[in-house]
Amino acid sequence: MRLLLLLGLLSLAGCTSLAEPPRTSQALQPGDSPLSERLAREATSQPRGHSGFYLLAASDDAFRARAELIRAARSSLDLQYYIFHDGLSTGLLVQELLAAADRGVRVRILLDDLTSDGRDYEIAVLAAHPNIEVRVFNPLHVGRTTGPTRLLGRLFNLNRQHRRMHNKLWLTDSSLAIVGGRNLGDEYFDAEPYLNFTDIDLLAGGPVAAQLAVSFDQYWNHRLSVPLKHFLRREPEAPQLVKARKRLANDIARARQQDPQRYARLVDYRHAPQLGNWLKALTWAHGLALWDAPNKLLAQAEPDPEWLLITQLEPHLQDMREELLLVSSYFIPARQGLLNLSQTARAGVDVRLLTNSLEATDVPIVHGAYAPYRRSLLKAGIQLWELRRQPDEESSYSFGGSSESSLHSKALVIDRRKVFIGSFNFDPRSVLWNTEVGVLVDSPALAEQVRELLLEGMSHGVSYQVAFDGDRLVWLATDEDGELKTLRREPGSLWRHLHAWLARRLGLEKML
């Protein structure tokens, strides 16, 4: 057994080489870029210190915003993401990033290491461009060469490898940012034929963008942030980038030929840009960027509360008096969260929650950890809604895309005044294990916009309302004729029910 273990450890030895520490760099000052100048003009009539915000609820707008922000960039682009999936939407954004780098824009891309599994060279080839640098956060240092060795490597260091950088942040010229729940991939922009992740992003400019630039730099310069090229035997050079560009162009041309409607919808930003209109329509208010300290991933046990985003958010949750609307794709309140929410509801606050149904979730085992809390939540007087797999096509929120929907949003509205939007799910993983980022805005106008979206999601045509019929849970929803029906069996396939049951039996809650 010792020999087998030794052989296993030896097989994990990768090509890791950290001959020199990565260079530090800081967010570039906005300077006199057209984008920063435009924001400054829009801010002149606003109270000092306020930031501008625009809600990106529709999938098309969320993609368009990213593409147009690349085109508007003059000095820098900083991207921080948990997932960087291949696909048409990602390919189009990468083409735009390369074009921006060609005109002298500095591009920094920081990815959670999980998204690079098996794709180190493919992603690192972007860094062959002199104006692009790619780093991975919390990387696996051994066993990166094959799927089985990567799995073993993560298992041997599970205490840290199950902790991930879940942040989603887009920053252009240190002036305008996007925060929210969307990663990069077709499924986040309604460009995947079979699945659309419904989500909410927030376009943010002004002082809050400067705060988010500080958060990016903290992660970029942290010791867990490593240039992806350090894990390659040979760094890609200019000829490899030329070849990659040709392959990318061919892939996009092929996708255009196979699905011209999808292609035309995605590239509409080239013909009818909207960024200028959005900047005119910004809601100006006091905003505060919240993020977990990157040291959170280094904790041997539970991290120091001072490092946590939830610690910064809690005072605002404790001040609630009238209403709390919460949407979380993965919702596991845990014992303390259940206690806090129950006390809030019993104090007279109208509490309504929206999460995925078993049939809609992309992670059934998470639903299995959440399900046991439903009875206690309902008994406390909390309304509970679960997104349906095929919601009403007339929904104006990204619930109603061209594909089946699964909830991916993370947001809350407090007393119709404060709104929080970010990458933070209300579950133990976001609280304790992953790092997150978001923005809290004190604005009745913006809060009302988000509130209307959430209430649309909390309707019987879009979601199931979980309720009691005697002592039994039932699911209320309207049928095709608009009549309210009562389902006495939880919707979802046998396969999904089995996964949820296993999660409960194995006690996986803290790991989820």
UniProtKB/TrEMBL annotation:
Top-level lineage group: Bacteria
Keyword presence, Ribosomal protein: no
Signal peptide limits: 1-19
Keywords, ordered alphabetically: Signal
Pfam families to which the protein is assigned, alphabetical: PLDc_2
GO biological process, one term: cardiolipin biosynthetic process
Keyword Signal assigned: yes
Entry's Gene Ontology molecular function annotations: phosphatidyltransferase activity
Protein name from the UniProt record: Phospholipase
Native species: Pseudomonas flexibilis
Lineage of the organism: Bacteria, Pseudomonadati, Pseudomonadota, Gammaproteobacteria, Pseudomonadales
